[in-house]
Amino acid sequence: MAAVTRTANLALISGSTRHGSTNTAVVLSLVELLGDTTRPVSYLDLAKLPHFNPDDDVEPLPAEVVRLRGIIAEADAVLFCTPEYAGDLPGSFKNLLDWTVGGMEIVDKPVGWINASSSPTGAEGAHRALRTVLGYTGAEIVEAACVRVPVPRAAVDPESGRITDPAVREGIGEAARTLIDAGLKRRDSVRDGEDGGEGQ
Ligand SMILES: Cc1cc2nc3c(=O)[nH]c(=O)nc-3n(C[C@H](O)[C@H](O)[C@H](O)COP(=O)(O)O)c2cc1C
Questions:
Q1: Phi, psi angle pair for 174, to nearest 5°
Q2: Tens-digit pLDDT profile for residues 106-115
Q3: Does domain 8-193 have CATH number 3.90.1720.10?
Q4: What pLDDT was estimated at residue 194?
Q5: Residues near ligand 1 with C-beta < 6 Å?
Q6: pLDDT, tens digit, for every residue of 110-140?
């Protein structure tokens, strides 16, 4: 019997709005790196999201919120990549995370992050906060896919906005593949649950 190739949907979300961002470089490089077995979908437009207001979290939702939630809903797993600002998450990225709460698409979704900080403190505060917020959203944090892969600005090609260093590319690829595996396992367990445990 021919082997069945399974394609995973991976959402890649950058927490930076900066031109030439190292975090966005991780996302763009992964889109290029992950081969035929992954459908990567990047979300780089957090600056287009309105300020979160519970009063606006009703139908009809703002179009950009619909787009963000749709990407998360379609994904088998979500990978975040964010800088640290003033010891915490950037406000615009926290705003994005706040919009994920009411939608529920992220509940039980395997999530991870690549911490691209090359600062001595390793953006610890931001990633501690990211863990806290993702806990509140109900996402399933895949510990093995929460890694630090420092990306110095010099490792980003200014033309393409992608990472050129082979070792860094290998590091981010490995983390993404760990998360993809978790996403596919979850897809199987949801399907088995829907089948009533049949089809072993
Ligand atoms: C307003 C501001 C505050 C920052 N605060 C921190 C910080 O608390 N800790 C840190 O490690 N880096 C801090 N940085 C540095 C950024 O995290 C760093 O430039 C990072 O590369 C930005 O990510 P990006 O390249 O994806 O935009 C700060 C930068 C700015 C502009």
A1: -65, -45
A2: 999 999 999 9
A3: no
A4: 86
A5: 16, 18, 21-23, 83-87, 117, 119, 121, 123
A6: 999 999 999 999 999 999 999 999 999 999 9
Separation CA 95–CA 117 (nearest Å): 21
Q: Whose CA is nearest to atom 30 of ligand 1?
A: 85
Q: Are 123 and 117 within 8 A, CB to CB?
A: yes
% of the chain exceeding 70 in pLDDT: 96
Residue nearest to atom 18 of ligand 1 (CA): 83
Which residue reads 């944090």 in tokens? Answer: 141
- Ligand 1 centre from 123 Cα, in Å? 8
pLDDT at residue 3, rounded to an integer? 53
What does the domain layout of the chain look like in residue ranges?
A: 8-193
Q: How far is the CA of 81 from the centre of ligand 1 (A)?
A: 13
CA-based radius of gyration for the chain: 17
C-alpha 121 – ligand 1 centre gap (Å): 11
Beta bridge partners of 52: none
